Amino acid sequence: MLVVALAGLLAAAKTLDIYSIDVEGGQSTLIVTPSGDSMLVDAGWPGFNGRDADRIAAAAKQAGIKQIDYLLVTHYHADHVGGVPQLVEKIPVVHFLDHGPNQEANPGVEQLYAGYSKLAAEGKHMVVKPGDRIPLKGADVQIVEAAGEAIAAPVKGGGAPNPACGGVEPKAVDKTENAQSNGFLLTFGKFRFIDLGDLTWNKELGLACPNNKLGTVDVFLVTHHGMNISNSPAIVQALHPKVAIMNNGAKKGGTAQAWQVVKNSPGLQDLWQLHYAVAGGNENNSPADYIANPEGPDDAGYGIKLSAQTDGAFTVTNSRNGFTKTYK
């Protein structure tokens, strides 16, 4: 019996875990490898009595880590970088990674960038560029987009012509920090996960058209909280995910148009959401078991956990009700 128990513990230790933390329509995604190395993508909002930092610290405790080895800031909007000052008061951050100087002429964004830059300068700071790899032990993390530039050459498995580009037209040029977002592809054995921050429509097309530079993935963290100024059918269909996770808020993101694009993507099995999107109605929301925070006045900050194995199998769990589904 002891041998069986130890074998079970060893099997559990071999998973790569991804925690989608509820920061109310912002982003905070914690990735922990089997070796115990960690990468946090963004830190949610400022204020709210440290709510988002508390939720990140709780996820870190659940994951069994005592520091953030790499903090990757996708861009300098309040719902992504605003929570960094409160985060560093809760848990040590070793490396600060970003796309370089702020590119948005907006006093609020400039102030957020200045505050973040001061903290980053006190740690180990690195500007990432397309093609760079983050040295996270136990997984391959490749930057595919940064500072408005895409990777020059396709990733392994990418490069094929993309038939979904037909009829997809560019939108107006986005001059905000969204278009500067860092995006990355994580590979763990046969498992592939992608997060493109808040990258907007035209920048998505630069990755997906006329050829798909990214290849296909198992799990797609829905871009820009499920907003329809992102999530072009060209890139969603090119990625061909089995599962999508949407880090929307109750009243932010989760737009009906983007939800439908993702939900109807060929090959998609399930779409998980951090919140019920109020404006979408039942016809543009997943079943309740796949939503961490259902419709209602109270929000307990429930998240979604994904555990992946090197053979490509992975399990997704709703922390609100323990509902779990395994994908082979």
By DSSP (H or I, 4+ residues per run), the number of helices equals: 8
Number of domains: 1
Low-confidence stretches: 1-12
Largest pleated sheet? 9 strands, mixed
Determine the CATH topology.
Metallo-beta-lactamase, Chain A
Q: Determine the CATH superfamily.
A: Ribonuclease Z/Hydroxyacylglutathione hydrolase-like
For the termini, the CA-CA separation is 27 Å
Secondary-structure element series:
HEEEHEHHEHEEEEEEEHEEHEHEEEEE
Mean model confidence by pLDDT: 95
Overall outline:
globular
Q: Which structural category fits the helices and strands?
A: alpha/beta
In helices, the fraction of residues equals 10-25%
Query: How large is the share of residues in beta strands?
Result: 25-35%
**CATH architecture verdict:** 4-Layer Sandwich
| Strand arrangement across the biggest beta sheet | 6-5-4-3-2-1-18-19-20
CATH class: Alpha Beta
